[in-house]
Design a protein that fits this description.
The chain is α+β, with helices and mostly antiparallel strands. It has 2 domains: about 90 residues, Glutaredoxin (3-Layer(aba) Sandwich); about 110 residues, Glutathione S-transferase Yfyf (Class Pi), Chain A, domain 2 (Up-down Bundle). It is built from 10 helices and 4 strands; from the N terminus they run αβαβαββααααααα. A 4-stranded mixed sheet has the order 2-1-3-4, with helices on one face. β3 and β4 form a beta hairpin. α2 runs parallel beside α4 and α8 crosses α9. The protein starts with a helix and ends in a 21-residue tail after the last helix.
Amino acid sequence: MGLQVNRVRLYFANMQTRYTLHYAPDNASLVIRLALEELDLPYDTRLVDRRAKAQQSADYLALNPNGTIPVLETPDGVLHETGAILLWLADRHGKLAPPQDTPLRAPFLKWMFWCSNTLQIDLRQFFYPEKFIGPDPEDQIKLRRVFQQRIQTDLTIIEEGLQTTPELAGGDQATALDIYLACLLRWCKLYAEAPEAPWLDLTRYPALHALCAKAETRASTHRAQAAEGLGQQPFTRPHLANPPEGSAT
């Protein structure tokens, strides 16, 4: 009886009104766009113009007081925080995540929160050192060196985690971890790697490289490529976005 009730709930959840995604091209909102596309859900987009600092406007701060991107408007209210939105979508629609009563649920949650609380935070401190250590350029260089090492350690950790539990990501059926990690790895290569001294060779991480290659075959990725100008190989050989509207920075 309980299983039948859950199926009915999922059926009606998948018939909800359209979502609204507040996004900027090639920002963390890309994770949510890919999830919406993978779930084949109806949604509208509202551009957050970063050049005009629209994420700091009164209207946007009313949705997300952190002034960060993305925001997703849902029937259950306004959501922010990338990992939380991704997990909510996975649970709401019964896809992209192992069911709660299965053994894979625990490691799935572990690595989802690790992506949000460790890898994404380390990338953020690398990208925006001035927000964490102040305006002095020398201090910013020192902080970036620290986080370059941390990010390389992070990639080794998640590579080993995926090899230990390969069912969580990299397969034919996309999971939330597939989506989250592909985007984080894109930004590692694009923004954390100095052009004059490249240090990230994705082929050194077989599970991560395979995950990115698989992601590039999906229709959801192809639609996001067109919408945000991500290039032909957005995860294995990424280039700066050339979006049809807005700016990634």
